[in-house]
Design goal:
Shape: globular
Oligomer: single chain
CATH topology: Rossmann fold
GO molecular function, one term: quinone binding
Protein name: SDR family oxidoreductase
CATH architecture: 3-Layer(aba) Sandwich
Organism: Roseovarius gahaiensis
Largest sheet: 7 strands, parallel
CATH class: Alpha Beta
Pfam families: adh_short (PF00106)
Strand content: 15-25%
Number of helices: 7
InterPro entries: NAD(P)-bd_dom_sf, Sc_DH/Rdtase_CS, SDR_fam
CATH superfamily: NAD(P)-binding Rossmann-like Domain
Order of helices and strands: EHEHEHEHEHHEHE
């Protein structure tokens, strides 16, 4: 049985979907939570506090490095971080405003991850322990089911960045890994028209089916994992 008693976990993109399910599971395992999202996550925080969780929240854009650093610095203890915030428009590279969309996607899905990981990892190295989990995507593994090229590029980049972070931090007692979900029934894929028959398991994932592997990587049970990407995609990609 995993336990997070006395541990604090920070989750970005926590208001819904995979982030919210991760928070719920961690809360049930005794974790203290630091939750952030673009527009805040007060409803989730109230839900978790009602069952006894210790929760702090913030609303900011992870593209804002200063705000990310300030929220992380405000945590008296940080044992794990889940970089979950993401953005996936479904346009193509010949659509209008492509350049602006590309910049936004990369800034959120790649640079935004770096913005939160840099201060979190620095603190974990200093304390000589910690877990960091990046929520990547099957899109970064093999192009996804319908993902647009900017999202594919950003998620491929974040998988490589995970490996770089893992090698840098492992000698200091910090484990950095990633989860690469396939199509998941969240608001992000509402407009994607993904055909479940293209998935060997025959359906999209539930958010909790992605959250469980994320929680595992945050735990002491993952103490010998370093730079791994767990493929949780219903069989779409078998690497």
């Amino acid at each position: 049985m995993l336990s997070f008693e006395g541990k604090t976990v920070l989750i970005t993109g926590a208001a819904g979907g995979i982030g919210a399910e991760t928070a719920r599971i961690l809360s049930g395992l005794g974790a203290n939570l630091a939750l952030c999202d673009l527009k805040g996550c007060d409803d989730l925080a109230d839900e978790l506090r009602d069952v006894g969780a210790d929760v702090v929240t913030a609303a900011f854009d992870i593209r804002d490095r200063a705000k990310a650093e300030a929220f992380i610095a405000a945590q008296p203890q940080l044992d794990a971080i889940v970089a979950n915030a993401g953005f996936c428009p479904w346009d193509d590279w010949d659509d209008a405003d492509w350049d602006d969309t590309f910049d936004r996607v990369v800034d959120i899905n790649l640079k935004g991850v770096i913005n939160v990981m840099r201060p979190a990892i620095t603190g974990m190295i200093a304390q000589k322990h910690g877990k960091a989990v990046v929520v990547a995507s099957v899109a970064g593994r093999m192009g996804g089911l319908r993902a647009s090229p900017h999202y594919v590029s950003a998620k491929g980049g974040v998988i490589s960045f995970t490996k770089w972070m893992a090698a840098k931090t492992a000698p200091h007692g910090v484990n950095v890994n990633a989860v690469a979900p396939g199509a998941t029934a969240t608001a992000m894929v509402d407009s994607s028209n993904i055909d479940p028959s293209s998935i060997p398991i025959g359906r999209m994932a539930r958010a909790d089916e992605i959250a469980q592997p994320v929680v595992f990587l945050c735990s002491d049970a993952a103490s010998y994992m370093c730079g791994a990407t767990l493929d949780v995609n219903g069989g779409v990609y078998m690497g």
